[in-house]
Amino acid sequence: MMNKKKVILVLSLFFFLVPTINVKGFTYVDYINNGNYAFFLFDLGAGNSTEISVIHDESGNFTLFLFSSRPIEAYVKGDKTLDNRIFSKVINYSLVDSPYINFTAPDTKVYYIEVILVGGGPDTYTLTCNKDLTRYYLPIIPGFQTELLLFSSILSVGLILIFIKKKIRKN
What we know:
The protein is about 25% helix and about 35% strand. By secondary structure, it is α+β, with helices and mostly antiparallel strands. The chain has a domain at about 25-140: Jelly Rolls (Sandwich). It is elongated.
């Protein structure tokens, strides 16, 4: 009986003395087709590091990119291949079979991740990171052609002037 109490006391003290480990992380699983992409964002303080990795289930060719400023396009061409302009915009990237980035932030800011399936799809991928990530979507705002906007404005002003002229003639 006395030994049992000693064991319980030692175990209790052990759990109080040993710090508990708080593991933070993020895992995201998605199934996408060739040319499709996903964006994520996260905060990282200066001097802090993060590890980002992508694994896939089938034979997909995934790429992983890290941006220091908010991307406004996906850098995927119409034929679902990678646009080479992306390499001038990123601060780190990985094109290997299971892409992996280990990054230490020079500045405290928001960083952006892009995962692209450039071939071998469709496929399922798992993105893991030791920081909490938030899904980020590119703003897709349909624009008007300048000629159409100009024509519509002139037509509207013209119709308003015609109605005003007719109203003045009636009075």
